[in-house]
Amino acid sequence: MRLIALAPMFVLLACSPTQQDDLARDAARQAIRPVLQEQLPGVPLEPATDCIIDNATSREILALAADAVIGPTASTVEIVGNVIARPETIQCLATEGLPVLLNRL
């Protein structure tokens, strides 16, 4: 079971740094979306997810990418909460997410 969980990490090692970053960010998105749906229902998922990805550290993105394999955990919720609380993320959510939300009304 552990080897299956580690398989995506082996794929990352075979890629260029840019490809590694793109793959990690895409995987992290898969872990972030369910957390947003549960913790912030109604928030526009794509803009909010992008804001979190753009303001997360590389270590946080890798942790979130790993969580995508097993599903969101308490650690996923904690990381997402920490990134959302950053002033840069709040600014991003206000400029990118709020207009999408207002257009739905």
Topology, please?
Elements: H1 2-13, H2 17-39, H3 45-55, H4 58-70, H5 74-84, H6 87-104
Helix pairs in contact: 2-3, 2-4, 3-6
Brief descriptors of the model:
mainly alpha, 84% helix, globular
Overview of the molecule:
The protein is mostly helical. The protein has one domain. Helix content is 84%, strand content 0%. It is built from 6 helices and no strands. It has helices at residues 2-13, 17-39, 45-55, 58-70, 74-84, 87-104. Helix 2 packs across helix 4 (58-70) and helix 3 (45-55) runs antiparallel to helix 6 (87-104). It is globular. The termini are far apart. The mean pLDDT is 83.
Task: Classify the beta-strand content into a percent band.
Answer: under 5%
Structural class: mainly alpha
Number of DSSP strand runs: 0
The proportion of residues forming helix, as a percent range, comes to: over 70%
Low-confidence blocks of residues: none
Q: Largest beta sheet, briefly?
A: none
What series of H and E elements makes up the topology?
HHHHHH
- Overall pLDDT, averaged? 83
Task: Provide a concise account of the structure shown.
With 105 residues, the protein is mostly helical. The protein has six helices and no strands.
